[in-house]
Amino acid sequence: MAALPMASLARHPFFLLATIYAHWGVLMVAAAYRLVDPSLPELGFLSYCVCIGFEAVLYANRHLCVTDRAPPPPDVAAAGGSGSSSTWKKKACWAAREVLFAPRGEMSDASLPPFDGSDAAYVPSRRAFLAEHAAILLLAVLARRAFDVVDGAYWYQTVEDNYGPAREGILRRALLSSSSSSSSSPAVAWREAGVRAWLAVQFNFPTYADWQAIYSLCALGAVGVLGHDHARWRPLFGDVREAYTLRRYWGVFWQQFHRTAFVTHARLLAVHVLRIRNRAMQRAVIGILVFALLALMHALCLKAQGPRCDTWPVIRWWLLVGGAIIVEDLVCLALRRLVRPARWTYLVGYVWVFFFFWWSRPKIDFPTVDCEAL
After folding, report:
1. Which of 116, 154, 268, 305 can pair with 122 through a Cys bridge, CB separation 3.0 to 4.6 Å?
2. Domain check: are 242 and 374 in the same one?
3. Which residues are listed as membrane-spanning (predicted)?
4. Helix residue spans in 73-156 (DSSP H)
């Protein structure tokens, strides 16, 4: 898509074609699933395909309609660029290398995690790069298998005492149970606290391991087989020690595949549609819009599994994340004027991030379990 040297007016039909193609791909996966077993209760892989299709549409719009991305001219390619715009064959090769095999290549180096946190300019040798990603691939696969074993052994049984609408909130119930023994709300038990802690791990770790394995496999193929420049394959995730706020968790530590497409469209809406000029307000609105787009994407993914599940808990949770980040920014701004950064402040930050997942994940996971049990 990005290799098409078309006029601005011609880009929009091609974007429509890319949207139809992504939708057609999802329908083909759904048809294949139902050919295998029409009674499948969960279409997890189809859900992933919907997410990928949603992001493909956003990236297609960004490349074709927003930034008018195109291959570099021949003189740039001759000077060391990644392709040439002289022939259709070279344009196709450029698109494959830049878009398919380097989906984050368009991002600035400042927005990508460095190879070495202590030396931002460090780039490993090609052999060391391949060895490292082979080890990451092996460890990620083993870690995911081990997690599945533990998850199957520990995961709470689907009985009413362990989950349900009455147990989505915990702070209010804890206060009521401590102040009155006659409260109609279920009491908070240690087992419930453990279930919530496991939900926080269950949400983050499998995705982390899966993406690490997929990214390392792609890196080994692109660098080891296709000869891609390994310096452009920066780490997928940042340093987990940087995740001492929710903003840094999502913006520094977590994988950045979503970042370019989602932030571009959020900024487009905030600046050119809503016409917000104040920088602080603009930053807050862009953050909310990014998580609103993520909410829409994950709601579509849930709907792909069938009409049984209500999408509102998914939308509510992702908007809750965006709102929590805004509140967090205000609190951090006030604390910087009162407290100097110290080791204990970072510890408080880590506890806060984990507490947010511990407190909020049942608001999305418990309703999902309820609808899957129907």
Report:
1. 116
2. yes
3. 12-33, 45-61, 284-305, 317-335, 342-359
4. 74-78, 88-95, 126-154
